[in-house]
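Here is the promised in-class demo. Please do not try to memorize the tokens; focus on the logic of going from shape to residues.
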């Protein structure tokens, strides 16, 4: 399994995200269709839609897995990982921000965050980018690897599809508050342990004491039980301060502070990318060590 994980990570690094016919894009279209048909703003409807969206694909993966375990693991993990794509999106924000092209940087960061970005200043763009890199490091990489380590390719697929539905349906708006609650809670459960392992990894690879202190004191004030530890520890590790005011769906939200230090600048986006990449290689090393110990 560690060799399959390394192979998938290398494929992701070399090939990046599939530009056409990506399975997650098709899954998103299916999920949107199910939501339009089944959203009666009820918990039951949301749970049924979730099962219809996720169940058949995970069931198929489980059925196919014994036929070619290594190949299935590599393919599923490759499509589930988003490491290279995340880094490329972050670089696409940092470069124009460093070169003074603020409008382009605003547009680019708007592709990976749900807040409104049209009025952000340079610091606001950098902050949004850093927060997204840190949080998506868990969602697109480490949560996927955790469930891959436990359940192989089908586990990685389950996590990634569940996380995608949370991103699509897990909003506290009138439309999604009840319908998307099952998706949000299921994702919270799947992410509980991986998020804390991600936070610990960020802390170990940066300003450890500051990161752990920020995790302990700031994460409880964050709405998300999993994003709070990840972003607090990540921002503390980098020595920057995130959080604060942001506009979501036309309404300003005053969010608790995250991290400690000055507001992020463009260069901190690259530092966040480096932190995520170093964390990824550490996770792979740990997988090999654990596997070797179990088979010794």
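The designed amino acids, position by position:
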């Amino acid at each position: 399994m560690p060799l399959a994980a390394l192979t998938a990570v290398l494929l992701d690094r070399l090939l990046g995200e599939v530009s056409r016919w990506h399975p997650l894009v098709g899954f998103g279209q299916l999920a949107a269709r199910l939501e339009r048909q089944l959203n009666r703003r009820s918990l039951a409807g949301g749970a049924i839609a979730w099962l219809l969206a996720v169940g058949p694909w995970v069931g198929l993966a489980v059925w196919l897995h014994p036929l070619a375990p290594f190949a299935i693991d590599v393919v599923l993990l490759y499509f589930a990982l988003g490491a290279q794509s995340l880094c490329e999106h972050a670089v696409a924000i940092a470069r124009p921000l460093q070169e003074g092209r603020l409008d382009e940087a605003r547009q680019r960061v708007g592709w990976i965050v749900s807040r409104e970005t049209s009025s952000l200043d340079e610091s606001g763009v950098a902050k949004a980018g850093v927060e997204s890199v840190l949080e998506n490091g868990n969602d697109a990489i480490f949560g996927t690897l955790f469930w891959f380590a436990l359940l192989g390719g089908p586990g990685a697929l389950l996590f990634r599809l569940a996380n995608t539905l949370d991103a699509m349906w897990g909003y506290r708006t009138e439309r999604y508050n009840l319908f998307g609650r099952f998706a949000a809670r299921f994702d919270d459960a799947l992410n509980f342990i991986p998020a804390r392992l991600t936070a610990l990894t960020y802390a170990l690879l940066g300003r450890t004491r500051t990161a752990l202190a920020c995790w302990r004191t700031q994460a409880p004030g964050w709405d998300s039980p999993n994003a709070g530890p990840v972003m607090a520890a990540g921002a503390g590790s980098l020595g920057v301060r995130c959080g604060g005011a942001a506009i979501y769906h036309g309404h300003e939200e005053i969010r608790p502070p995250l991290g400690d230090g000055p507001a992020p600048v463009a260069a901190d986006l690259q530092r966040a990318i480096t932190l995520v990449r170093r964390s990824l290689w550490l996770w792979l090393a740990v997988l090999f060590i654990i596997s070797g110990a179990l088979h010794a």
